[in-house]
């Protein structure tokens, strides 16, 4: 494979590129000098910003490109089937592809690489567990480990829980966390598969729709949490699930979010339901749900 190039940044529509045959539109490319063979199973085009594009092969070889249109910033994954050779006007087609969701010559674009659901679920669970243990641990250390006379009157229950009870709280908290991260992980996976009409930033809907989405998320998640929590006390079958949260008569900070699997799964479901029914900003959704719920 020839790796010598004349310049570090080439225009993708430069007719002097040696890798493309500019004979007749629609004809096959002359792949004799093409640095990434047209018969290679896949290659990746990544947009680090609006103007700089890179073609990265599975061997790690990089060739920079530049798109003329700066209105689309995204990471674009493309796959080229060996049964679809590149045409002479492939650069223009590739630039057009960056602005649409349609397939071209066997190329499929996705906006985010959340293609491994279980890996995403594992990562979110590890991150969530670390955050919960850290934040709850700070409060626990201050009020339950570093005891002082001044802190004792602030405690409504004069007794302190046993180490076994605290251990049970932590285990239950982490067990529930594994279900709390299921819905957001599935939402990210479906977003990566382009099953949801979601976006980041202001997007094509404008700032007005972003403000509208803020209040929709706020009201929807708040009422959802309120009514589900209320049903946990008024409906017997739901109380049988929720009552495990109240088994700690002398709770520590770890018990605040120590819920059963089903409780955590339902409470996190707005992260999956809202993107399924309306276009929504995923950054805004995740931030608000984390704050309110």
Explained architecture:
The protein is α+β, with helices and mostly antiparallel strands and 293 residues long. It folds into two domains: 1-109, no CATH class; 117-292, no CATH class. It contains nine helices and six strands. A four-stranded antiparallel β-sheet has the order 3-2-1-4, with no helix packed on it. Strands 5-6 form a two-stranded parallel ribbon. Helix 4 (182-192) packs parallel to helix 8, helix 5 packs across helix 6 and helix 5 runs parallel beside helix 9. The longest helix is centred in the middle third of the chain and has 29 residues, at 117-145. The protein is elongated, with a radius of gyration of 26 Å. The N and C termini lie far apart (55 Å). Residues 1-87 and 97-113 have low confidence and may be disordered.
Write the topology of this structure.
Layout: E1 43-47, E2 52-57, E3 62-66, E4 75-78, H1 90-97, H2 117-145, H3 163-180, H4 182-192, E5 198-199, H5 206-234, H6 236-242, H7 261-267, H8 270-277, E6 280-281, H9 282-292
Parallel strand pairs: 5-6
Antiparallel strand pairs: 1-2, 1-4, 2-3
Helix pairs in contact: 2-3, 2-4, 3-7, 4-8, 5-6, 5-9, 8-9
């Amino acid at each position: 494979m020839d790796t010598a190039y004349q310049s570090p940044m080439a225009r993708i529509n430069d007719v002097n590129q040696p890798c493309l045959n500019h004979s007749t539109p629609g004809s096959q490319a002359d792949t004799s000098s093409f640095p990434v063979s047209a018969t290679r199973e896949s290659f990746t085009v990544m947009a680090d910003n609006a103007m700089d594009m890179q073609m990265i092969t599975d061997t790690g070889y990089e060739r920079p490109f530049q798109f003329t249109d700066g209105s689309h910033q995204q990471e674009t994954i493309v796959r080229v089937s060996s049964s679809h050779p590149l045409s002479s006007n492939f650069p223009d087609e590739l630039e057009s592809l960056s602005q649409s969701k349609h397939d071209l010559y066997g190329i499929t674009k996705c906006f985010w690489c959340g293609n491994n659901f279980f890996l995403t679920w594992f990562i979110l669970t590890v991150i969530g567990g670390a955050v919960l243990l850290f934040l709850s641990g700070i409060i626990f250390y201050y009020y339950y480990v570093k005891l002082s006379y001044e802190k004792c009157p602030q405690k409504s229950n004069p007794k302190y829980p046993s180490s076994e009870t605290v251990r049970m709280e932590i285990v239950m908290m982490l067990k529930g966390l594994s279900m709390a991260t299921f819905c957001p992980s599935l939402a990210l996976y479906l977003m990566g598969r382009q099953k949801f009409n979601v976006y980041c930033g202001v997007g094509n809907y404008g700032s007005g729709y972003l403000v509208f989405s803020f209040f929709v998320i706020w009201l929807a998640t708040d009422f959802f949490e309120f009514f589900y929590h209320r049903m946990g006390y008024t409906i017997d079958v739901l109380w049988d699930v929720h009552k495990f949260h109240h088994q700690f008569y002398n709770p520590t900070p770890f018990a605040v979010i120590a819920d059963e699997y089903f409780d955590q799964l339902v409470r996190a479901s707005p992260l999956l339901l809202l993107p399924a029914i309306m276009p929504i900003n995923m950054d805004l959704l995740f931030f608000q749900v984390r704050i309110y719920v």
